Amino acid sequence: MEAVQVDLTPAGVPLRFIWRGRTWHIGARPVRWFERRPWWAESPRAPKGGPVGLIDREIWQVQARLGRAGELATFELVSDQETGRWDIRRSAPAGRSSEREKS
User: Fold this and answer.
1) In whole angstroms, what is the distance from residue 89 CA to residue 24 CA?
2) Contact, 76 vs 100, CB < 8 A?
3) How many CA atoms does the CB half-sphere of 60 hold within 13 Å?
4) Which of 63, 44, 98, 55 has the alpha carbon at shortest distance from 80?
5) How far apart, in whole angstroms, are the C-alpha atoms of residue 90 and residue 86?
6) How far, in Å, CA of 98 to CA of 85, rounded?
7) Could you list the pLDDT tens digit for every one of the 103 residues in the chain?
8) Measured on CA atoms in the order 66, 69, 72, 77, is the torsion positive or negative?
């Protein structure tokens, strides 16, 4: 995964992101879900009553374009709620669906 800078709407929805020095603008309604992260592989113990971000991670599937008129491409943005860091987990060129869209 690669780190990205994500700008959010006041409601917390991705609006645009900067990846590899280029600004991508969200061009369609993003889809959000949560996944269990393999905390047991990253830490020997999870503290009781620990933060939600320790167990779950927030994923946003977005369709974005370079500039305002480019072709849409699909990305998965992963939010680490504990640190505030965002990463790109997957990207697919315009015209190709991601694995999540196929299932």
Assistant:
1) 15
2) yes
3) 23
4) 55
5) 13
6) 22
7) 899 999 999 999 999 999 999 999 999 999 999 988 776 666 666 556 555 455 688 999 999 999 878 899 999 999 988 788 999 998 887 655 444 444 3
8) positive
